[in-house]
Write a structure and sequence with these properties.
By secondary structure, the chain is mostly helical. Helix content is 76%, strand content 0%. Helix 1 runs parallel beside helix 3, helix 8 runs antiparallel to helix 9 and helix 9 packs antiparallel against helix 10.
Length: 406
């Protein structure tokens, strides 16, 4: 088996084992076409012997790199060719010659020998093909599978037109074989591009405007949502705070009423019962009962209004872990000002930290308010029960001390 057949079999096996269906352009079909046209050009240019063999072996091997790395395909193609040729026992000088042919074609360099020119012209056969538009569409799809950024249709057609305008076949035989059909395909590309420009520019502008409008609407919705959310937060915290302050004021007023009433009762009992106990000795027991309930009621009312002493300082770690509120004065009145300022600045920068402080402050005020009303409830209950029992005690005592009223 000669070297050309061995290269053909090697490449076919390679495409079977490393099969990649995304290679729509640089596939086995493209390689076979390149080899076929390379063979024809060799005959037309009267290239024979080892030169012909080198060209056809290069034609089989030069696109194999796309199977391994689409970005670095040039290096990979050279690597595959070097490995194959070395296995076949070719001398170093000939291996370098074949690899040079492959590299100059892949890099679109100026070809300094007929071998590179023939392979280059053969590899560009599709420019003169009847299926030219199909070939370039495959090329775009393949390129967009593997590379970023992706090319749009219009930009791709423009790239193809630019390439056709700058492209020249190297050999006279290729010019005779391909040039006329290439010019026809160049006219096709020019027509397709003009249609794309006429058809897509207005559409794209309209689409761009619509997309911009949609994007602006989305931004407006997000901004409005944030503003509404901010207004909602502000209203919620303001109403909650106002309600808690009002309830706290109501609790203080109720405690004040209880303290005043019980103080008056204690003063009256002390004046009229205990001071003149010789004349009203029989009222000592109900007086003691009344005094007892009044003192208990006063105590709970005072506990409800008594201010709680807070530490006045906290650990910064607790603050950043959202375990303490910076809003309530009782948490910071003993702090160093620099620490307080830093914590306050950080809180204003961090919305989550700010909301956590507001929530904790409202929660703490609610807990204090709950304790206050609980103590007031006990105070009112004791006052009510004491009032009833004391009244009954006085009534019973008066009746027992004056039997004629019975």
């Amino acid at each position: 088996m000669d070297l050309i057949r061995e290269a053909e079999q090697y490449v076919k096996n390679l495409f079977l084992t490393k099969k990649n269906e995304l290679l729509l352009f640089h596939n086995m079909g493209y390689i076979k076409k390149t080899v076929s046209f390379a063979n024809q050009l060799c005959e037309m240019e009267k290239v024979t012997g080892k030169e012909r063999e080198d060209i056809l072996v290069s034609a089989w091997l030069f696109s194999t790199g796309f199977l391994f790395d689409y970005v670095d395909y040039k290096k990979q193609s050279s690597k595959v060719a070097h490995q194959f040729l070395k296995e076949k026992g070719l001398d170093k000088q000939r291996i370098e010659k074949i690899i040079k042919i492959i590299e100059t074609v892949l890099q679109n360099k100026i070809h300094d020998n007929i071998c590179g020119e023939i392979l280059y012209d053969a590899s560009e056969f599709y420019l003169a093909s009847e299926d030219f538009l199909l070939w370039v569409r495959y090329h775009r799809q393949e390129r967009n599978y593997f590379l970023i950024p992706k090319l749009t249709k219009r930009s791709f057609w423009q790239t193809v037109q630019n390439f056709l305008n700058e492209h020249h076949y190297c050999t006279v035989s290729a010019q005779k074989m391909f040039e006329a059909e290439k010019e026809k395909n160049a006219a096709k590309i020019k027509f397709v591009l003009s249609q794309e420009l006429l058809k897509q520019l207005p559409v794209n502008n309209h689409m761009l405007i619509e997309e911009m409008k949609e994007e602006i609407n989305q931004i407006n919705l997000k901004v409005e949502k944030r503003l509404s959310s901010a207004r909602g937060f502000d209203t919620l915290y303001r109403i909650t705070s106002r309600n808690q302050v009002s309830l706290s004021s109501m609790a203080d007023n109720k405690a004040h009423i209880l303290i005043t009433l019980n103080t008056l009762i204690v003063s009256a009992i002390t004046t009229f019962a205990l001071v003149k106990h010789h004349d009203l000795q029989f009222l000592i027991f109900p007086s003691i009962v009344t005094l007892s309930f009044s003192m208990i009621s006063i105590s709970y009312a005072i506990f409800a209004t008594r201010p709680q002493i807070r530490p006045g300082v906290f650990k910064m770690d607790d603050f950043y872990n959202k375990k303490v509120s910076l809003i309530f004065y009782g948490n910071f009145y003993k702090m160093n000002y620099d620490d307080y300022e830093k914590a306050m600045t950080d809180m204003l920068k961090d919305q989550d930290l700010l909301l956590s402080n507001l929530n904790r402050d409202q929660y703490t005020l609610g807990k204090i308010l709950g304790r206050k009303f609980k103590l007031l409830n006990i105070s009112f209950t004791v006052f009510l029960v004491g009032f009833v029992i004391s009244a009954l005690a006085f009534l019973i005592t008066l009746l027992l001390s004056n039997p004629e009223y019975i």
